[in-house]
Fold:
Amino acid sequence: MNISERKKRILRAVIEDYIATAEPVGSKTISKHAELNISPATIRNEMADLEAMGLLEQPYTSAGRIPSPGGYRFYVNELMEQHRLSLQETEHLNAALRLKTQELDRVITEATRVISKLTKYPSYAISAGPSHVTIRRFDLLQVEQQTFIVVVMTDTNIVKNKLLRLPADLSETQIHLLNRLLNTSFTGLTLEEITPDLMEMAKQAVGEAYALLTMVIAFATEVMREQETYAVHVSGLARLLEYPEYRDLERAQPLLAYLSEESALSALPKPDDSDVKIYIGPENVEGALQDTSVVVASYDIGENMRGLIGIVGPTRMDYAKIAARLYYFADGLTKLLGSGGDQTKRKK
Amino acid sequence: MNISERKKRILRAVIEDYIATAEPVGSKTISKHAELNISPATIRNEMADLEAMGLLEQPYTSAGRIPSPGGYRFYVNELMEQHRLSLQETEHLNAALRLKTQELDRVITEATRVISKLTKYPSYAISAGPSHVTIRRFDLLQVEQQTFIVVVMTDTNIVKNKLLRLPADLSETQIHLLNRLLNTSFTGLTLEEITPDLMEMAKQAVGEAYALLTMVIAFATEVMREQETYAVHVSGLARLLEYPEYRDLERAQPLLAYLSEESALSALPKPDDSDVKIYIGPENVEGALQDTSVVVASYDIGENMRGLIGIVGPTRMDYAKIAARLYYFADGLTKLLGSGGDQTKRKK
DNA sequence: GTTTAGCACTCGAGAGGAGAGAGTGCTAAA
DNA sequence: TTTAGCACTCTCTCCTCTCGAGTGCTAAAC
Structure:
């Protein structure tokens, strides 16, 4: 696209003004920008050109201009300056990143909350697990005669436990035997490899302890399955209503309903590299998002796992600021959670 | 309050009609009720009386009547018939209660989602922990030379674990010593009882293993603190917008914002017995809830812990149906999670 | 050739008013 | 005590009108 420098200036001015005010921008308003010493009439001509190029739109004849999705795209690709976080902002983000070393779930929940608060848009996070998880290690701890804690550790270094109650006593040798069997025959297996045949064989081997074995294996498969699935979080939904574009309930409601449906969110775009991605209006495939923009960053949880954190809002948004914040935050999360960091942070 | 049988009939008719239509109810509409063979004029007289008693209201002169909060209260206390769940409804609820035996958190999250879907109102759940938690048992499992899994079990039978990495090697005797020290000197202590003095004494006792000890204790205190705090979940927020009373954004927005603020929710009423409680309009203390009703049931998680599950909606709601569903659901949750049930369900 | 001033024109937002309809309260009759 | 009749009230909806912002075009100025 070949665009004169002046047109670019005007386009940027329109977009930035519209981002700030949510009102269509007229030629007069633009002409007041000190850097552009041109009359409204000239600007009108230029704007007509920009409209013909598909970068601006008129809500109706003889209203001001607003940026079209294509205009935003051009802005994001070519005109947007790298926004730098203010000291205060980095401070806020850093404070948020000093999350307690809790379970991953909580870190993610907290992260969405913080990013939503910071950007003033609803935010969502999806953490995607690796496709095949196996158990690396089993431990059986006897608490009381018929009470055990089973601890399993996956090959992704996730440790989970559960309290089990048995209906009958077991001897110490039986427990020992079971422990060994678990750590020899059931480690390194994917979900599919735990077959009824295998269980049958194990039954022969452990005898009376089979009841406990099935409970342990049931738990292990639950953990594996859980690790392999997505976890979705949304925060700050209600903030959407603060924006004039969602003053109209007819418009706001379907979007809110869509964002409330966590299963739907997992279909949102998943960029695979670590850049911040921006999806503007119709660039989103989902119908409910046609009039909204999604800004999403991806972070590294380590061990084959990637997470996404993003925000959803009207196409009129300050992409520069938002993108910078998400980038900084995702980067921080990667450092906090990723392979480089302290493994213990990934417990749960 | 002394009210004639006929007045009660009329009040009930007004309330039930208003619940169904959300429109002020006129005398003509009521007179059409087959069971009440009285003319509109008579009904007008009666309604004027009911209004004088504060049970009905007129949005403006010469509109129909709508129930006042007091009217709803009277309805709930004296007129409401026990709603019986349909077979289909119990089926739905039962299916929902067959939740996976996952962590408590998840069960609660899932429960709010189900109840919100069923009632079509936003729902919330709060699980309150006991006020003093102590650690009953510590286990240290060595995974690799410098990697340990620490497993702690609270006196409320909650088991949690974490993966720890050490900067230096430890001998087997040191680990053994630490393990014993933990299980003798640190069990049964509340958060306040873990003093710097105690830590200092422990330092003398374990020597080099002190680094590991602090990590373990840090984790234990984190677990205790977590167990003692509330967990809040909200689901189905956007459903609020489906009701005509929230068509007006000015009205909907503050409420949505309030419900999004999880910390605010923990201030919601906490009934202490196991009945379903109903708080109508101004009976709620929170300003944002003045125009809404809260229906809440409490369920037993066992071991000193109680949870709440409730819904929030316009004062015009079908209290009978909602209360019945919540009651059934809370009862089911109690059976699933409570002292009577399988303790293993409470793992996490 | 480009830029600017002038001007008629367009279109939505918002104010104001008229009419319809639902429902009331009061009065008087049954 | 109940009911019918009737004047009255008040909101809701639709319509019209005006206002103003902003445009596109034309012609003059640079």
